[in-house]
Each structure stands twice: as C-alpha cells, then as structure tokens.
Amino acid sequence: MKENIEILIVDDDEDDRKLFIESAKDINSGITFNTATDGQEALRFLKDEHNQLPDYIFLDLRMPRVGGRKCLEEMGKDKRLHDIPVFIYTTSTDVKDSIELKEMGAVHFISKPADPVDIYYILSVVLNEKWERLNNKV
Amino acid sequence: METATADDLLAEIEDLKLRLSEAQDAIDAIKNGSVDAFAIRTNGKPEVFTLQSLDYAYRVLIEKFSEGALNLTPDGLIIYCNSYFSNLVNIPNEKVTGSYIFDYISDESRQQFREHFDLALQGCSKTEISLRTNNITIPVYVSLTNLQPQLATVGMIVTDLSEKKQNEQLIKIHAETLRKKNVELERLNKSLDQFASIASHDLQEPLRKIKTFTALLKMKLNTTLSSESSELIDKIIKSSERMSLLIKNVLNFSRIVNMEKMFETTDLNQLLDNTLKDFDLLILEKGASVQIGNLPVIEAIPSQINQLFCNLVGNALKFSKLGRPASISISSRILPSGETENEFNVKLNLDRQVSYAEISFKDDGIGFDQQFADQIFSIFERLNSQEQYSGTGIGLALCQKIVQQHHGGIRAEGKENAGAIFYVLLPLTQSANGVSN
To answer: Which CATH code is given to the segment(s) B66-160?
Structure first.
C-alpha cells in the first residue's frame, strides 16, 4: 500500500465522515484526511493551488448547495483535477445513478455500508488497489 | 350611287323576309323554352347565347344546395333566397324575400358585415360573422360577389358554421381536459420521482445509521453484554437491514414499471462486466469463481439489464452452499426465429418471427425443487426462510418485470441442493414490437 495517502472526504454527514476516517485509520494510520461538507467547499479546497491535491476523493451525492454530481462535473472540466480518482460514496443504491456517475468518470459507486465492519472491508480493498479514473474523455 | 334593278330589289325583299321569319322562330323558341342555347355567327365567329331555361338547371342546383344562397340588390334587399337559407333563419321563404339582409345580421357583426358588403360592391369579399334570428345566434361564413355588369346585384353564399364551431368548442374542451390531465400526470410523476428519491436516500439514511450505531454499540459493549442482550441487539440490526432491503427493492420495482422505455444497442458483455465489478468484493469474500462466455449485442434498456444481471448474479452468490466457494457460469447462445419454441420455452409466449438471445446463469448453490420454478418469480414469494437466507422476495419478480419490458422471457431450472440455472431470453432487436429507438 502506498504510504502517506491523502484523501478528501466530501460529505455533509458528520457521522459518516467520522466512521469513514476511523475505519481508514485502522487500515493505514499514515493516511491524512481533508474534509469538505459540500461540493462547493470541496471545489474551493481543490482549486486553491496552495493545497496539495488528494490521492483519492470520496464524494457523497446528496449534499446541500453543490451536490456530488455537480462537483464531479466541475472537476472534469478542470485539467488539474481531472485525473484524481473519485469514489462516489452515497446512501443511494440506484443503478441508474451508478451508471451515470461512472460514465461521468467516477471510479466506483459505493453504497455506504451499514455495518462498520463492511466499511473497513471496503476501504481495505479500495486502498490496496491502484486506481485511475475510468473515463478520461470528460 | 348604284342603281338596282327591280329583280335585285325583289330578291333583297325575299332575303329580308326569310331572315325576319328566322328571327321570329328564334323568339318563339325562346318563348316556349324549346331551345337552351343558340349560336349566332357575327363577323364569321360563333357567339353562344344561353337562355333562361338553361339557368333553370342552376336554379335547381342552388335550391338543393346545402348552403344558403341569396341575391341582393346594392342596398341589401333580398330578391332571391334558397330554401336552405330560409330554413337556417327559420323564417318562411316568401317573408325573407323582400326583406333586408341587414335584419338577419347580429348586432356584433353588423358593422363588419356592412364593410364587407361595401367591399363586395367593388368586387368580392369573404368573412366570418354571426346571424341573429328568432333569438338564436348562428355563426356563418359569408362569401359576397358582385354580379355586375350582367346583373346589378350581389350574390351571397352563407355557410353554417354551427357544427364546426361546436366541434371546435368540443376540441377546445377536450384539449383543455387533456392539458389538465397532463399537468396532473406530470405532477404525479414528479411526486413519484420525489418519493423515489426520498425513499432511496432520506428513508435509508436513518435506517443505515440505526444499524451502524447498534453494531458499534455491540462492539463497544462486547465483553459486558449478556447473550440475551446481544441477541436483542442482533434483532434490531436484522430488522433495520430487512427494512432497508425492502425499501430498496420496492423502489426498484416501481422504477422499472414506470421507467420510460429507451432501447439502445447494448453490448451485454460490457454490461455484465460492469455488474461483476460491483460484485468484486462479495466475489472475493465468498471466494467464488465466475466463468463468462461471450454475450451478444442486442437492443435493450441498459440500466434495466444491469439490474437484471445484478439480481441474477447476486442470487447465484447468495444461494451458494455454506462453506463452499460458489462456482457460477454465465453463457449465451442465439435462438434464431422459428427455433425459439421448445418444450421449456413454450410458456414464455415468445414470438416465432423473432430471434432471441438466450443467456443462462448457472450456479452450484442450494438450488430449488423444480415444482416451484414458476412460483419464484412472483413478488414477495420466497422459498427459503429469512433466518437462512435474507431477502425480500422482490428480486426475481423484478427480473421478470424487466424481461417482460424487453418482450422476452425468463425461466428457471433447479434441483434441490444441486444448483439452479436461470434462462433469460431477450429479442435481438425490438423492431417487431413497434419500438423505435
């Protein structure tokens, strides 16, 4: 596993952010996290050239102001952000969402697991792989 | 000056007498109506003169016309009207004749009619007005033509628009009803969408949290929990899981039923690939092996086929034998038109004219008793207890719905404890079903 991984979590739900970080830290304590509570905040963070770009982004879909879909779309337009692997991390289990967002370039569509153990398993699989964006046409 | 002989003068008298007698005959013929027309040669060219008895035919025609026909003097006096017009205004013909046309025009139309009548005195004019007679308003279309120089009158044709107006009114009412219904339908669709979004997200989230935090609570209390308390906590988790699954599946079912049918050329290999990617983790966890044959390209609704594959692969993984890695194989063959009907497919009502792709999902799981092969596709129907294999009994009903939307069929073969095979039959193209892409 790559050391010093940087992850940006974009989620308006504080519980989910916490659970995610706890599980991820259990897997690799070297991971550093940045958080944003909606798409707008995420884009502001990503577009600020003083900030180091994350290795992965975990993006919730339904958030106030700027949602995940819009955020992904905006990232696709920005050459700097274009290639960062984005994982959709959402309560939705809608197949249509999954297909559409992958077409928009998301690497994976992960429906938030209910069991904290599953969060651990999913993240361990995710963090052990090397990911690239599915679709670089955007 | 030329001089004429007596003989010349006598001959001329004879000639004049003859012409006079011819003219007298013509006048008699005209009088007694025995000729319709006659031609007179002037300057060597024939000129045709029609007579009154010929326009008798036109008079009959006009009388039988199913439109009003009138002849008016330049000041609007009606010197002739056909019976259609007198019936239309419901006044005896002899009373209409001799009255003024302006008496039959409604107050609202009078000014407009006046203008068009004046225009017609210069040539012709057409307009839509309304008549008013016996307290009834009749919408009409009038066409006015100046008959000068032959006659110092104006011809007027009156077309009754009552029925047309009534129809127009009906169409308007129906269009309005349709518009309202459409608005209502759009509103309903929107609220259904909203419901779908609420159900998939807002209802799911608290449920997921109940499960998450109950599980965390259980982990934290791990050693201090009595077995009875641990069991109770498990029941909370199980129930919330089940609720969550139910919501998800009912929602999927309603989505499939209400979905717009958007068929497109679809590579099933690619779809299956996507589906299997979503199962990466579960396949890994179960140590399952999946063999995939080559699948065809067909006309389909990709998101629905994705859901179909998802459910069938999910089932194969779920109903694997405990403690043994599952082995799943997915393959396909083409059934050309005319060869679709075999003893197994007979119940699926396939179209003999159509070629189908038969995709089979074979597993080595717990299988089922063949006598339940039809029952498993009914909604909320389950063959295994909730304790053994969780589920809502919607998955296969959804699969059936999807293949029905694709004008195909699905059937299952099974043996208890010896695996199951699901056969999905999908038309290669949708053209036979009147579907345009």
So the answer is: 3.30.450.20
Q: In this structure, what token pair is assigned to residue B21? A: 């007698």
Question: Class assignment of domain A6-128?
Answer: alpha beta
Instruction: Quote the pLDDT of residue B437.
Output: 47
Let me know: does B100 contact B76? Beta carbons within 8 Å.
yes
B124 backbone φψ class: left, alpha, beta (φ>0; ψ -120 to 50):
beta
> What are the pLDDT digits (tens) for B378-424?
766 666 665 566 666 778 888 988 898 899 999 999 988 889 999 99
The structure's pTM equals 0.46
| Residue B251 in this model has a pLDDT that exceeds 90 | no
Beta strand ranges found along A11-123 (DSSP E): 32-36, 56-59, 86-90, 108-111
Locate the chain A residue with the closest alpha carbon to B311: A95
Cα distance between residue B69 and residue B384, in whole Å = 85
| CA dihedral for B94, B99, B100, B105, sign (positive or negative) | negative
In which region does residue B347 sit, left (phi positive, over 0), alpha (psi from -120 to 50) or beta (all else)? alpha
Inform me whether the C-beta atom of residue A98 falls under 8 Å from chain B C-beta atoms.
yes
Q: What is the DSSP letter of B46?
A: E
The structural domains of chain A, with segments of one domain joined by +, span 6-128
Q: In chain A, positions 25-64, which contact chain B (CB-CB < 8 Å)? A: 62
Is it true that B66-160 and B260-437 share their CATH fold? no
Beta bridge partners of B421: B362, B413
Q: What is the DSSP letter of B103?
A: G
Counts of helices then strands in chain B (DSSP H, E): 12, 14
Return the CATH number of the domain spanning residue range B260-437. 3.30.565.10
| Spatial contact of A98 and A51, defined as CB atoms under 8 Å apart | no
Angle at B329 between CA B324 and CA B335, to 5 degrees: 155
Which chain A residue's Cα is nearest to B285?
A121
Calculate mean pLDDT across residues A56-78: 91
Report CB contact under 8 Å: B204, A93. Answer: yes
Residues 6+ apart with CB under 8 A from A135: A102, A103, A104, A105
For chain B, domain boundaries: 30-64, 66-160, 260-437
**Rounded-to-integer distance, Cα B220 and Cα B396, Å:** 38
User: Cβ–Cβ of B285/A121 closer than 8 Å?
Assistant: yes
Q: How high is the ipTM of this complex?
A: 0.71
